[in-house]
């Protein structure tokens, strides 16, 4: 205790000296600032005709005062499907009952509205929240994060709820997707878009070549994880991305990520050997690998008039643990192992300043799961889900978009679903970010 | 006896455990080692500068000579509003000691994302390593009302400040001082570069002042509202704009309206920036029988605009040619 006191006294005595040093540098900086302002002033009086107007200070021009930047995305849909969306399943993939899969509601519907608030908290932190207002009058917190801004050395630490940085599409908000829906591989293996509560550390290498490495730890709150009530982490992820330019016309990015999740008694909808719906429960670990690549082309790098984007991702998921068959009746537990995979490939071509045409093709493979002693009780799936999607969108301004999408969806065994969507997406408020 | 599948299973289990127990600490340790290596500024010799637009890249080169290593985020043929925070730019922002941009929301769509993703504390807005040129000039076209009804308007005024050489002079003064602050050990050298540039620039401005005399008071049409500072300098009068609202592509029906306007108040020429598609200007040129003038807009926009001096030499020359052309035609 005494030692601490002594140290405290010593520190207190030293403190004025350090502030003194600060003051001298501060005075120097101020002196230089005044000098620069004076020089600017004289230069202006010498050369500008209307120099009576005082040069406004930077602060007075800042469009954002202390209020956070607010932006809102409004979206609506018309959906026409040949098959009833209520019967939508992705054959061979056992998913939670509340999984957001398939074309959603038929007819006219309001789509998700997204409200975002972003602001700096203090000189070293930044806060953001993205709320999804669902048409059924519920609100979901999609992301709510604090993030460091001044760690330096290419480091950035994020905490809160966020979309994992795995893959290319995963961290992207719905209004920036090139199609109405996310690819089947995301719907079947990543719960449409994997988000979690946790921390994320990312590091950008100090090289001319872009190389970003990220590590995440989380609770594992949603599919492929779930029901984790533990002190440790239920999710861990590692991501690595690299990319660059090839001349002025081309640029690219590619990456490899792995997501480890734990699930405890996570109820999944499956089919029994007779083809009837049954609820099973999965306890165990899932490891999901995502390989992603995107390549963009624009003449002279000017995408205002013409551009082409090609992108593809491959998702490979291994579930390992225990599966309890028919939790409400038989409840028979057995060892379980399944290897799932899928990919999509898409191209989006901007052929006029306001018009884009897109094509996406995708395929899933549920493999042959090893159900252990439950083998005879569960359905054997031989179907390989696939889908082909065509999209045309019109962007009258940077802030508005109307989209027509046609799809032939073969996610359900023995059923072909022709889907048509007409969608609008409008953004208002703060200027949106042009992320890569 | 262990069977092959069980062994495989065991290996997989072990890797799973490693993933969560030993893997992350190992990675973190590796990261720390790499970090330690890079804590020391190995390349302290030159100041790394990332310029958002070519004109600021050229200016930094003039003011920093061989003390700076400049890289430019955009080319003269790209629309500075429409850039994406692409990987190569993130990498360059991460390694920059100084970022020099126009500001005034010109880069609003991509620069904030770039700086955020860079993990570089030095170049964040408000730091010494972030320089916004628009902060030191008198802004024109400041909107009285902020509403997207008016298109993609910029709250603090028109950001295309580089088309007036008097603005370049103002920015050069402030930027020279900023270079001295960011790299104080070479302050004297920067002061020398700045004095030299300033002298040459004043001479060039005096030359342009006599050359541009015949342009004063001429009426012009512009494709994008990009030349307000140029017109302010030259004394040109803008009588029509082809884009119905800033950033909105002109339609044929809108061009017809512009044509009708020009019948009442004729323009001597139509002006468009090199990065924009010439189609609507060409259409007007043909239908209103007036010359379409491509303006370099920034360094590298035309063959003549090799540096800042060339940029204004070329701009003035093209405008003079167009002004004379029209005198010949009825």
* Tally of alpha and pi helices of chain A: 3
In percent terms, what proportion of residues of chain B is strand?
5-15%
Terminal CA distance of chain A: 55 Å
With helices defined by DSSP (H or I, 4 residues minimum), what is the helix count of chain B? 10
Q: Can you tell me about this structure?
A:
The complex is a heterodimer of chains A (436) and B (330). By secondary structure, chain A is mainly β. Chain A has helices spanning 2-47, 58-61, 184-189; strands spanning 69-81, 107-110, 113-122, 125-133, 139-148, 155-163, 195-204, 210-218, 235-246, 250-271, 277-297, 307-325, 332-352, 355-365, 386-397, 400-410, 417-429. Chain B contains ten helices and eight strands. In chain B, α2 packs across α5 (165-182), α6 (187-211) runs parallel beside α10 and α8 packs across α9. Chain B starts with a helix and ends with a helix. At the A-B interface, α1, β7, β8, β9 and β10 of A face α1, α3, α4 and α5 of B.
Q: Keyphrases for this structure?
A:
heterodimer, A: 436 residues, mainly beta, 16-stranded antiparallel β-barrel, 17 strands, 13% helix, B: 330 residues, alpha/beta, four-stranded parallel sheet, 10 helices, globular
């Amino acid at each position: 205790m005494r030692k601490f006191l002594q140290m405290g006294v010593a520190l207190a005595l030293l403190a004025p000296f350090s502030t003194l040093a600060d003051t001298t540098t501060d005075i120097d900086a101020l002196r230089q600032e005044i000098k620069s302002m004076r020089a600017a002033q004289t230069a202006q009086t010498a050369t500008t005709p209307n120099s009576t107007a005082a040069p406004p200070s930077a602060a007075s021009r800042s469009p954002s005062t202390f209020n956070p930047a607010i932006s809102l995305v409004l979206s609506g849909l018309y959906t026409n499907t040949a098959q009833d969306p209520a019967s939508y399943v992705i054959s061979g993939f056992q998913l939670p009952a509340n999984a957001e899969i398939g074309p959603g509601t038929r007819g006219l519907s309001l789509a998700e509205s997204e409200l975002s608030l972003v602001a700096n908290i203090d000189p070293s932190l930044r806060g953001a929240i993205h709320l999804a207002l669902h048409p059924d009058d519920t609100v979901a917190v999609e992301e709510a994060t604090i993030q460091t801004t001044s760690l330096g050395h290419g480091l950035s630490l994020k905490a809160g709820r966020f979309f994992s940085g795995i893959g290319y599409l995963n961290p992207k908000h719905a209004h920036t997707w090139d199609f109405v829906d996310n690819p089947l591989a995301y719907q079947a293996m990543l719960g449409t878009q994997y988000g979690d509560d946790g921390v994320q550390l990312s590091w950008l290498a100090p090289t001319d070549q872009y190389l970003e490495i990220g590590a995440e730890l989380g609770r594992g709150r949603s599919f492929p994880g779930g029901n984790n009530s533990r002190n440790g982490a239920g999710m861990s992820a590692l991501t690595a991305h690299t990319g660059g330019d090839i001349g002025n016309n081309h640029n690219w990015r590619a990456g490899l990520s792995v997501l480890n999740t734990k699930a405890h008694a996570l109820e999944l909808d499956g089919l029994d050997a007779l083809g009837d719906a049954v609820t099973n429960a999965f306890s165990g670990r899932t490891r999901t690998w995502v390989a992603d690549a995107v390549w963009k082309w624009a003449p002279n790098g000017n995408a205002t008039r013409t551009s082409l984007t090609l992108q593809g991702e491959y998702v490979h998921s291994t579930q390992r643990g225990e599966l309890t068959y028919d939790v409400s009746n038989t409840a028979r537990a057995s060892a379980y192992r399944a290897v799932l995979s899928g990919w999509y490939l898409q191209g989006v071509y901007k052929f006029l300043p306001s018009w884009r045409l897109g094509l996406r093709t995708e395929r899933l493979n549920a493999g042959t799961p090893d159900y252990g002693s439950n083998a005879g009780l569960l359905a054997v799936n031989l179907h390989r889900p696939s889908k082909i999607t065509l999209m045309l969108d019109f962007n009258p301004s940077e802030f508005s978009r109307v989209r027509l999408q046609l799809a032939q969806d073969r996610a359900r065994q023995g059923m072909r679903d022709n889907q048509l969507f007409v969608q609008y997406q409008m953004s208002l408020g703060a200027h949106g970010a042009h992320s890569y | 006896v262990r069977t092959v599948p069980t062994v495989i299973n065991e290996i997989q289990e072990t890797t799973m455990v490693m993933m969560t127990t030993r893997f992350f600490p190992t990675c973190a340790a590796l990261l720390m080692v790499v970090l330690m290596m890079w804590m020391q500024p190995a390349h302290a010799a030159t100041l790394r500068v990332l310029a958002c637009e070519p004109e600021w890249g050229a200016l930094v080169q003039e003011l920093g000579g061989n003390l700076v290593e400049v890289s430019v985020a955009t080319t003269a043929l790209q629309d500075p509003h429409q850039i994406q925070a692409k990987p190569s730019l993130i990498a360059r922002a991460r390694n920059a000691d100084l970022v020099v941009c126009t500001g005034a929301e010109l880069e609003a769509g991509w620069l904030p994302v770039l700086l955020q993703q860079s993990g570089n504390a030095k170049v964040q807005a408000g730091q010494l390593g972030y320089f916004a040129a628009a902060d030191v000039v008198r802004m024109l076209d400041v909107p009285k009302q902020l509403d997207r009804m008016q298109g993609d308007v910029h709250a603090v005024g028109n950001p295309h400040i580089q088309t007036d050489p008097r603005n370049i002079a103002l920015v050069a003064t402030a930027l020279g001082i900023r270079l001295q602050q960011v790299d104080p050990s070479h302050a004297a050298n920067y002061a020398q570069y700045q004095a030299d540039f300033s002298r040459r620039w004043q001479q060039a401005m005096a030359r342009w002042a006599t050359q541009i005399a015949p342009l004063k008071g001429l009426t012009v049409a512009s494709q994008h509202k990009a030349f307000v500072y140029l017109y302010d300098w030259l004394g040109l009068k803008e009588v029509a704009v082809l884009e119905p609202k800033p950033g909105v592509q002109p339609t044929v029906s809108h061009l017809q309206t512009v044509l009708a306007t020009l019948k009442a108040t004729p323009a001597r020429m139509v002006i468009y920036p090199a990065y924009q598609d010439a189609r609507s200007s060409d259409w007007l040129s043909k239908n209103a029988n007036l010359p379409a003038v491509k303006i370099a807009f920034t360094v590298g926009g035309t063959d003549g605009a090799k540096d800042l001096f060339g940029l204004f030499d070329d701009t003035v020359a093209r405008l003079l040619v167009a002004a004379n052309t029209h005198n010949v035609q009825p």
